[in-house]
């Protein structure tokens, strides 16, 4: 069982603890407005400890505002943000990080990710990431949307192995080979779009929801956690934020886990990373 309560954490490969469940804020509109701030504040109130944003989401100021208004100590909130592709490169990465840090209004960022792979600039971008990590401005560094073909070249020049790989992951896209590869290299897999943009109508998921007295979304999120995948469902709706966190009072059997995994079709709701 991967997690027993909303505040449970996994230990990353550098010893930093990261919550299993977080709140994603992609497409929160207005991007730094009241809905984003209210959603984050409510999530933090009910026990969430991880907020995932990105420079490209253009809502980092709202994230920072919500965390400050929550009254929680900075060390009690795990903040992830990501580098825009247009900012990849050594000096541009350092400047972009500083901009994100100022927008968030924090002294350090818990997890900083390369948002999308760019092999042409990967070496210099990662060198900047390692500098930020060594200077204590970032507690952990990682990547997003990387496939094995992107990770292997990184390993050839990196002094620090990524702590996290955040990818599209859900029952229709289990990415088993990539997941196994990351586990073998002690890289924590993290799921974005875990709820398949609301496409939760599969008969198998509906049957399990009835069996366990849960919603289809809760079945999928529980499946994520039991597969030891950090998960960041996005929402600005209070009821949905609460629903997504109510997944720690039951456990799917091995047989039911296999049923959900069998739904895999290698289907993406977004484009394939190498084509980005």
UniProtKB/TrEMBL annotation:
<feature type="active site" description="Proton donor">
    <location>
        <position position="57"/>
    </location>
</feature>
<dbReference type="GO" id="GO:0016616">
    <property type="term" value="F:oxidoreductase activity, acting on the CH-OH group of donors, NAD or NADP as acceptor"/>
</dbReference>
<keyword id="KW-0560">Oxidoreductase</keyword>
<feature type="domain" description="NADP-dependent oxidoreductase">
    <location>
        <begin position="21"/>
        <end position="264"/>
    </location>
</feature>
<dbReference type="Pfam" id="PF00248">
    <property type="entry name" value="Aldo_ket_red"/>
</dbReference>
<dbReference type="InterPro" id="IPR036812">
    <property type="entry name" value="NAD(P)_OxRdtase_dom_sf"/>
</dbReference>
<dbReference type="InterPro" id="IPR023210">
    <property type="entry name" value="NADP_OxRdtase_dom"/>
</dbReference>
<feature type="binding site">
    <location>
        <position position="115"/>
    </location>
    <ligand>
        <name>substrate</name>
    </ligand>
</feature>
<comment type="similarity">
    <text>Belongs to the aldo/keto reductase family.</text>
</comment>
<keyword id="KW-0521">NADP</keyword>
<protein>
    <submittedName>
        <fullName>Glyoxal reductase</fullName>
    </submittedName>
</protein>
<dbReference type="InterPro" id="IPR018170">
    <property type="entry name" value="Aldo/ket_reductase_CS"/>
</dbReference>
<feature type="site" description="Lowers pKa of active site Tyr">
    <location>
        <position position="82"/>
    </location>
</feature>
<dbReference type="InterPro" id="IPR020471">
    <property type="entry name" value="AKR"/>
</dbReference>
């Amino acid at each position: 069982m991967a997690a027993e309560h909303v505040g449970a954490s996994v230990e990353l490969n550098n010893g930093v603890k990261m919550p299993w469940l977080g709140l994603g804020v992609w497409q929160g509109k207005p991007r730094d407005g009241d809905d984003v701030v209210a959603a984050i504040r409510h999530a933090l109130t009910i026990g969430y400890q991880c907020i995932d944003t990105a420079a490209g989401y253009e809502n980092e100021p709202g994230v920072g505002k919500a965390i400050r208004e929550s009254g929680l100590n900075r060390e009690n909130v795990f903040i992830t943000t990501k580098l825009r592709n247009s900012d990849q490169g050594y000096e541009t990465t350092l400047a972009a990080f500083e901009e994100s840090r100022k927008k968030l209004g924090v002294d350090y960022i818990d997890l900083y990710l390369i948002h999308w792979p760019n092999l042409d600039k990967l070496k210099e971008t990662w060198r900047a990431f390692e500098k930020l990590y060594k200077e204590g401005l970032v507690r952990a560094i990682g990547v997003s949307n990387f496939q094995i073909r992107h990770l292997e070249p990184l390993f050839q020049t990196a002094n620090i192995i990524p702590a996290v790989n955040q990818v599209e992951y859900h029952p229709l896209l289990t990415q088993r080979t990539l997941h196994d590869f990351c586990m073998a290299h002690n890289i924590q897999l993290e799921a974005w779009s875990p709820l398949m943009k609301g496409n939760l109508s599969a008969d198998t998921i509906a049957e399990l929801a009835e069996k366990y007295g849960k919603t289809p979304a809760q079945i999928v999120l529980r499946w994520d956690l039991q597969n030891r995948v950090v998960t960041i469902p996005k929402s600005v709706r209070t009821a949905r934020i609460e629903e997504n966190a109510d997944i720690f009072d039951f456990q799917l059997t091995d047989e039911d886990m296999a049923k959900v995994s069998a739904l895999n079709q290698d289907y993406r709701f977004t484009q394939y990373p190498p084509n980005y």
